Amino acid sequence: MNETLKTIHTLRTIHGNFSVEEVSQLNLDLICEAILHTSNASARQSYSIIVLSDRKQMQDLFGYQGSRALIFCVDFTRLAAGAKHLNHAFDNDDIIGFITGSMDTMLAAQTAVIAAKSLGIDSLITNGLHRNNLDVVYKSLNLPETSCFPLITVVLGYPTEEPAYQKGRLGADFIFHEGVYHQPTPEMLEKMVAEYDDHEKHIGLVDNWEKMGFQHYLDWFYTKWSDEPNTEKIATGKVLEFQERLIKSGFWWPAE
Fold this sequence. Notes:
This protein has ten helices and four strands; from the N terminus they run ααβαβααβαβαααα. The chain is of the alpha+beta class and 256 residues long. The chain folds into two domains: 3-161, NADH Oxidase, CATH 3.40.109; 178-225, no CATH class. Strands 1-2-4-3 form a four-stranded antiparallel sheet, sandwiched between helices. Helix 2 (25-35) packs across helix 5 (95-118). The mean pLDDT is 93.
């Protein structure tokens, strides 16, 4: 196994337990330089990244704090302004543009995580911003009202203590499909349940599901962690807030 694969295989999430030790400016610059080399659609780099160093601001915005936080935004503002500057028309504010921009943005975030780990810096990838009021987020970060959406945050730092174990993952036979998509069989579903139940693999979010009275980890996951399905498919709460924000940003066009 080469050094790149070793770095990827040792990735882990630090859930807010970051020490006061700071990431050096040199290492931050190296991480940012690596981000610029990320693959992206049509050479657009349709994202912007807000770099935070104020720990209280991090806590207020997304509930975690570390040495640095990188807020990755899907953003077409720069491209739209360039078009106007050269007297051209440009409009990528639709759901297709949003999905393509989201892919570019997530690739950049993952590059940051891998680059940081190669330098001995741990990370947390969080959507905590979305649990905040989005109007507050936009105002606090001075984000453009249109063509921009804060997608994901990467918190960087050093752990206060080493995690007791590395989280596991489902095996390749659950994830990869040869040639065409294959629906999960009852046998595969039973195997999946057993994988999540295996305490040595640490795949799930919690390990004490049995002490809480559940027969399987996924019993806890489906009844305590996952939301009840919205059978009426009427947007309320956070779903409505997201839809309204995406419409306001220009990425979602309401049906006539």
